[in-house]
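Worked problem 6 (solution included).
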Amino acid sequence: MSDTSQVTGGATDGASDAARTAGGPAAPQNAEEKPGDRPGARSLRPMEIGLESSRQRSAFWTVGGLIAGALLIHSLGTVGVWVGVALIVMGVYHAWRLIQSVLHPAGTIVVSDREVSLPRGVCVPRPVVVTPSEITAVYFLRRVVPWNRAAPVLVIELGPRAMLFPRDWFASEADQRHVIHAILRAQGDPRESSTAGSSTAGG
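Solution. The predicted structure is:
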């Protein structure tokens, strides 16, 4: 046992003895403490990372997919028809995304020591709100990436559920890294706490 643990334990025992002497109940020693409830503990300042919505790309695919698909269906044979249908479907999908970007903001990932707010997608309302302890894993996927996702993909696991945040949803890969470090700090990772302390002292 370290010296710090011994001193802390002695102070707790002294408080309990004083309570018993005064006739009051002893203070519970095994109560679970949250990061923000510990005396002298600094609460984590909320970190916000906004997602990026590219309306220009959605508009390009909407117009290009619909026009090119219609031309292929009108001009070519069976193969051209199927390719044209696929382009039209893609154009309709991007038209829906363009409408969503007008109706809703892109979304923001918010991490604090009390809760983590995770958008369900770009320009998708009603984000998922969880506590830091409900996040079971957070990491990058760089090689085994779904075909419709840009690498690297930030993966945040909530038990059996995994939420994916691809690179093109962020302004830079550094924003993805900031999310990982903020979640680890909110979970009380001592390595992240010491890193944050060193950065603050250096600043």
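Discussion: The two ends are 34 Å apart (CA to CA).
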